[in-house]
Task: inverse folding
């Protein structure tokens, strides 16, 4: 079976919620919709306090090149427009809506029927994806329409669909591929049309044999789409690693996958594209896994964007006693939440509850220069060195050690026998070096 | 045998002589004429090379001093007026008296007033904690208390108080060099006038959020109500972005603002305790110090 060669680790998979079918979560009383849920510039507000909104209505417009539209996920009244806590406790502007009923904007098809035929042109597809605020649902939330606009002089020859879900615990993409497989494949063929390519490859890790089999059966009805089972290895779901594993091309440092003729979209994004183009439905809900060894009822919920995390935990049986950390995302790359009032955003793939014992960090000891982190790094970096330069706050040296190439997968942090917080150091290094690089390019 | 010694002595001697002559002319050609006062000035300076004056070393500062015509813009914060008074006669200019300065920590969100809601278990430095999360109390501008200022201080003048979790500046040791100001990722520390008898009054908060969210995380946050601005008879207080700031050049330490503050975010340092005012003329009866524990702090108990 194929996989990428350099580095990687294999943490315990713990896919506890993989058998739990997707449940529709009941509507919350109030939703908190941040206007910056995507990579790039925050969207510009289109509503004011007291406005009545319907589900699917545009409430903030992405005006910059890299930005995305934000739609209301519920119907009701705009109660407040104010700053709320994000996952790290800093304030972000958000629209707070009191839910009244469930009235949808006209023209949105919410029926379960599958519409296969797509007659739109490439330009119309891109416009539709942009209009409906679709962003990458794998976690990085890069606006999808930007990925479809291939820059001049470049040519895409293959579309890669990421159904890897290499993060331990998370199962949202797995359930989607099983339950909405056909719609995903229609979405894939729309994306192929949007990119003007004739070939699409779906990569799925071997720990999801049912999903591989299901999609392989379905692809018979679609031309140009092929499903590949890949060896289980973290971080195979990272763009560059997946390209390496599937088509054996290496994306150059600091460049995008289009450089080697590939474009990667997440399986969940393919579904969102299907809904946007065929059903006229904006991205207002997503599947979120609520899981953890202590969780009473590990589940996969279809959640409206803006629902507070506390409601999801309540629906999964409540907060278990002795919970140490609540993490947004998976255990490798996720971020510990500062409070349970934080809302679900477009990039929230899972909520992971860890007990006090599980979430306790290892005692930090000195680096013993064993180079295990260098072996584990899928980008071929030397994490111990970047960590040391960042700890000394020597950002220039960190830049020379190619800190910006780090994909923040956390393999080094996971594997370090001395328990050194390498990813923390590198993240800070990336923030600092990114700042100096931006100010340099402005000069 | 003897020949080897003789030849060696002669040849090495000749090389030495030639080199000496060349070096003599080179030295004449590239001679640097230094102001003789430079060494004298440098000898008077403290030699800490702290950078507080804005120059990278004491010698650079001395160089600027001997070249200048006006000493008003040059000041050694470590030596203060005493050193500048010694330096001035060397270059023959009058030294201007400057008010002594000191670093103040503009955050009073101690463990009591801004209790931790979460625990940060990443690398224990302020720069990292600031970039990775808002802070254990939830206040995005409050002190994270991990001591970047302590490690930046070359004079051992600042330490983290165990009980409150906040940095405390020593009145005697602080020379206002500004190293801690630069080290603090949240710009909480400010250089202010030391004040008569070390008496200072300042807003001990830099949170620019609106009242409700600021108060939610910290009991002694400035909520931007503007009461202090109204009461100040000297226009020394400005309110900007929900935050009051006392201009130390205008403030005359009348202390009228502190009792007005509903959250106690205006801090008074080293003042005598307030007396209960019962005179008929004064309509406002101020509470005694014991009832207003938030903003009456004496250096003695703060420095534990």
Result:
């Amino acid at each position: 079976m194929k996989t990428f060669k350099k580095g990687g680790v294999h943490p315990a998979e713990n896919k506890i919620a993989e058998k739990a079918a997707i449940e529709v979560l009941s509507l919350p009383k109030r939703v908190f919709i941040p206007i910056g849920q995507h990579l790039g510039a925050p969207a510009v507000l289109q509503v004011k306090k007291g406005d009545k909104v319907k589900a699917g209505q545009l409430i903030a417009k992405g005006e910059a090149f890299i930005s995305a539209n934000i739609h209301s996920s519920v119907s009701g009244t705009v109660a407040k427009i104010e700053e709320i806590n994000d996952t790290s406790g800093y304030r972000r502007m958000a629209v707070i809506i009191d839910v009244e009923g469930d009235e949808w904007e006209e023209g949105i098809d919410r029926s379960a029927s599958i519409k296969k035929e797509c007659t739109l042109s490439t330009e119309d597809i891109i416009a539709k994806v942009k209009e409906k605020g679709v962003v990458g649902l794998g976690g990085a939330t890069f606006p999808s329409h930007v990925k479809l606009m291939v820059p001049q002089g470049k040519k895409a020859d293959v579309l890669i669909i990421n159904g890897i879900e290499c993060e331990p615990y998370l199962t949202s993409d797995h359930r989607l591929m099983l339950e909405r497989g056909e719609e995903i494949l229609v979405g894939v063929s729309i994306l192929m049309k949007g990119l003007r390519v004739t070939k699409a490859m779906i990569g799925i890790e071997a720990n999801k044999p049912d999903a591989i089999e299901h999609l392989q059966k379905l692809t018979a009805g679609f031309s140009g789409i092929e499903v590949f089972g890949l060896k289980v290895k973290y971080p195979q779901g990272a763009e560059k690693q997946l390209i390496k594993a599937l088509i054996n091309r290496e994306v150059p440092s600091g460049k995008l996958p289009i450089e080697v003729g590939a474009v990667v979209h997440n399986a969940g994004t393919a579904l969102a594209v299907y809904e946007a183009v065929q059903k006229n439905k904006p991205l207002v809900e997503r599947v979120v896994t609520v899981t953890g060894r202590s969780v009473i009822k590990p589940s996969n919920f279809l959640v409206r964007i803006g629902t507070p995390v506390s409601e999801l935990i309540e629906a999964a049986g409540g907060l278990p006693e002795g919970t140490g950390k609540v993490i947004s995302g998976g255990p490798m790359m996720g971020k510990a939440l500062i409070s349970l009032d934080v809302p679900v955003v477009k990039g929230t793939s899972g909520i992971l509850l860890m007990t006090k014992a599980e979430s306790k960090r290892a005692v930090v000891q000195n680096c013993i220069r064993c180079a295990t982190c260098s072996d584990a790094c899928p980008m071929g970096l030397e994490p111990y060195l970047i960590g040391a330069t960042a700890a000394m706050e020597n950002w220039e040296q960190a830049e020379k050690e190619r800190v910006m190439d780090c994909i923040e997968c956390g393999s080094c942090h996971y594997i370090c026998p001395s328990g050194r917080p390498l990813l923390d150091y590198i993240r800070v290094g990336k923030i600092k070096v990114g700042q100096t690089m931006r100010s340099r390019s402005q000069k | 045998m003897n020949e080897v010694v003789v030849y060696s002595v002669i040849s090495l001697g000749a090389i030495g002589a030639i080199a000496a002559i060349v070096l003599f002319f080179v030295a004449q050609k590239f001679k640097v004429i230094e102001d003789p006062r430079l060494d004298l000035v440098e000898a008077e300076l403290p030699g800490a090379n702290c950078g507080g004056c804005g120059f990278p070393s004491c010698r650079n500062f001395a160089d600027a001093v001997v070249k200048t015509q006006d000493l008003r813009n040059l000041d050694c914060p470590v030596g203060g007026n005493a050193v500048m008074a010694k330096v001035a006669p060397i270059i023959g200019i009058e030294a201007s008296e400057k008010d002594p300065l000191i670093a103040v920590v503009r955050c009073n969100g101690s463990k009591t007033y801004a209790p931790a809601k979460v625990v940060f278990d990443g690398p224990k430095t302020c720069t990292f904690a600031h970039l990775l999360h808002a802070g254990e109390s939830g206040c995005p501008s409050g002190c994270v208390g991990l001591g970047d200022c302590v490690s930046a201080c070359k004079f051992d003048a600042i330490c983290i108080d165990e009980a409150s979790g906040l940095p405390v500046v020593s009145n005697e040791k602080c020379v206002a060099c500004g190293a801690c100001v630069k080290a603090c990722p949240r710009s909480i520390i400010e250089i202010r006038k030391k004040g008569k008898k070390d008496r200072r009054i300042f807003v001990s908060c830099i949170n620019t959020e609106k009242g409700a969210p600021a108060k939610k995380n910290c009991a002694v946050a400035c909520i931007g109500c503007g009461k202090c601005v109204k009461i100040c008879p000297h226009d020394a207080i400005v309110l900007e972005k929900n935050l009051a700031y006392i201009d130390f050049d205008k403030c005359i330490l009348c202390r009228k603002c502190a009792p007005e503050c509903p959250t106690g975010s205006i801090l008074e340092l080293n003042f005598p305790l307030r007396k209960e005012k019962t005179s008929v003329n004064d309509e406002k009866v101020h509470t005694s110090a014991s009832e207003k524990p938030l903003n009456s702090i004496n250096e003695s108990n703060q420095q534990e």
Residues 40 and 46 of chain A are 18 Å apart (CA to CA). Chain A touches chain B through 19 residues (CB under 8 Å). The first strand of chain A starts at residue 22 and ends at 24.
